[in-house]
Amino acid sequence: MRITYSVSTVTHHFSRITKCPTTVFNSIIFFDLDNTLIDGPFGTAVFPLVLYEIARKTNCDQKKIRRLIVKENSDRQNDPQCPAVKAMDWDDIFITVARRLGAETLEVDAAAIVRATAREHSALHDGAHEVLSQLRAPHRALVLATKGLIKYQRPILEALELDQFLDDVLTPDSHHALKKDRAFYGEWLRQTSEVAHTAKTSEVLMPARIIVGDHYVDDVLPPHQFGMLTIWKNEKIEDQLLKMNPFERSEHFEYADDQPVKPTAIIKSLHEVPDVIARLESATPDRSFYNLANVKLGKTCQV
User: Is residue 2 part of a domain?
Assistant: First the structure.
């Protein structure tokens, strides 16, 4: 198991990020968790139990309760005065909504439910272990970037044996920030920003910083603003786009009005990730990754 530390130092050649003097990284790959690598227990275990208890104690419709819970979470995330950890604390959200509806206490505990059901009610997406194993390399850091609090995510990582592949796990607990905030990524971005600044006056190169995720608002828009390359996992892309390579898909996808930024690539399956990563890592020395729409992907590149 590798997740015992965060990046702390920078070497003086090739802009590699290191967590100790003998380990260097040319690339930092961030992975979202829910709906990217796994399906978790909230939908099948946590929410059903919570909704049942609140409905039983308040005589409210479960659909109405769910809407209120989702709204409370959304309102907290969009409130700049709300601490990041509180915004994603489902236990606090559940009891807050329950009390508004007239239930003063709840017996259900979301964190406890996750611990009890993580193995039975969580499932890896196809290729998750295979892809992470293939990407794991001394020159590459694999960092989990999830909006879920560690008390909810740790049992899942352990149950599905994902922790063995990871160099670090970032949650709102890590730096008291949400994924939409640069501070969420901590040293992983601060160090590379310092490297980028140094690179202006030397031949030092900034490591590739790439994120793979399914949620446009969290995994495409803010990371793009932070200078990261974005691989958007979209399982609902139309059939005609599947004939294109992931870089072409990004150019031809029909984006909504509230999606102003194009991801670097669009994938449907995790099995496409290693080839996309390899193409990005082997791009020109000046890190000109953004003109890859005409790249014809053939056999999977060595990663």
Answer: no
Predicted structure pTM score: 0.84
What φ, ψ does residue 115 adopt, rounded to 5°?
A: -60, -35
Q: At what angle do helices 90-100 and 62-77 cross, to 10 degrees?
A: 120
* Residue 197 domain-assigned (yes or no): yes
Is 98 a domain residue? yes
Residue 143 pairs with which residues in a beta bridge?
30, 168
For the segment 172-197, what is each residue's pLDDT rounded down to a tens digit? 999 999 999 999 999 888 655 555 55
Here the tokens at position 71 are 């709204």
Tokens for 170, please give them. 């970032």
